Amino acid sequence: MTHSLRRPASLTRTRAPVTPPLRGSFESLERQNDRSQADGLERILDDDDLQQRIANGFLVPLPLSSRLAASDNLPIDRRYCRSWTAAFLADLARAHAAIFHSPLEVSSAVRTVEFQKRLMRSNGNAAPAEGDIVSPHVTGATIDLAKQGLSRQQLGWLRRWLLPLQQAGKLDVEEEFRQACFHITVYKSYLPSNSPPDPNLATSPILARGR
User: Fold this and answer.
1) Is the peptide bond before 192 cis (omega within 30 degrees of 0)?
2) What angle do CA 26, 27, 33 make, to 5 degrees?
3) Beta-bridge partners for 143
4) Is-contact 160 119, C-beta < 8 A?
5) Residue 97 and residue 71: Cα distance in Å, rounded?
6) Helix (H) or strand (E) holding 28
7) Confidence band (pLDDT; 50, 70, 90) for 22?
8) Which residues of 165-174 are buried (b: 16+ CB within 10 A; e: fewer)?
9) Dihedral sign computed on CA atoms, order 150, 138, 124, 174
10) Distance between CA 121 and CA 157 in Å, rounded?
11) Best CATH choice for the domain 21-207 from the list 3.30.1380.10, 3.40.50.2300, 3.40.250.10, 3.30.559.30
12) What is the mean pLDDT of residues 123-144?
């Protein structure tokens, strides 16, 4: 009698497909600059310029809550972004917390040209501060979400949530590995929305938003 070499069905395990990282490119950085210009976003030059824009309401506080935290290394006066970026963060944090019951962390938000110049001297991976192609952080529309501490399931969920929004032209995302973060530039077209995303869904809000 011959015996089958196959494992019993109860011992076999199927794995869900792994969502690949959302890698950036120079073309993506060019697009972020082009879209920022099309949205009429000026570069924030220095601390005085930053404070003036905050006072005038052009920048709003990060929507920090039990669902969204700021890194301890992120200064208080850098915890600001554009209103549509804040709306995106609130949507994302709400949906993530409904699934994983833990907060996401913003590791970087608005920067000034002056700050980006200093960053370039200490970080060879930093985008330029001046010229045609610069770091979109200097417009206030861009944030970094820390990947440190996130599980494989959380990383996959974030990739699946963000990708439809990128494909719809609502944002651009570059997954960085040296600094371990999701670099996300949100565009004005993220707003207005017809309705907020269902926090019980693990899918992107593009299914709930008008394009």
Assistant:
1) yes
2) 90
3) 184
4) no
5) 17
6) helix 26-38
7) confident
8) bbeeebbbbb
9) positive
10) 35
11) 3.30.1380.10
12) 74
Contact 101, 71 (CB under 8 A): no
Lookup: tokens for 119:
């960053």
Strand order in the sheet with 142-146: 68-70, 104-108, 142-146, 181-186, 171-176
Residues composing the chain: 211
Q: Which residue has the tokens 């693990």?
A: 202
CA distances from 100 to 110, 152, 155, 159, 196 (A): 27, 12, 11, 15, 19
Among 2-6, 37-41, 102-106, 158-162, the range scoring the smallest mean pLDDT is 2-6
Token digits of residue 190:
């993220």
Beta strand extents in 53-197 (DSSP E only): 60-61, 68-70, 80-81, 104-108, 142-146, 171-176, 181-186
Residue with tokens 């599980």: 151
Partners of 105 in the beta sheet? Answer: 69
Q: Summarize the confidence of residues 102-112 as an average pLDDT.
A: 96
Q: Could you tell me the two tokens for 203?
A: 């899918």
Instruction: Quickly tell me which residue has 């960085």 as its tokens.
Output: 176
Of residues 10 and 29, more confidently modeled: 29
Place of tokens 């996959």: 156
Higher pLDDT, 177 or 50: 50
Q: What is the pLDDT of residues 74-84, one digit of tens each?
A: 999 999 999 99
| pLDDT at 63 > cutoff 60 | yes
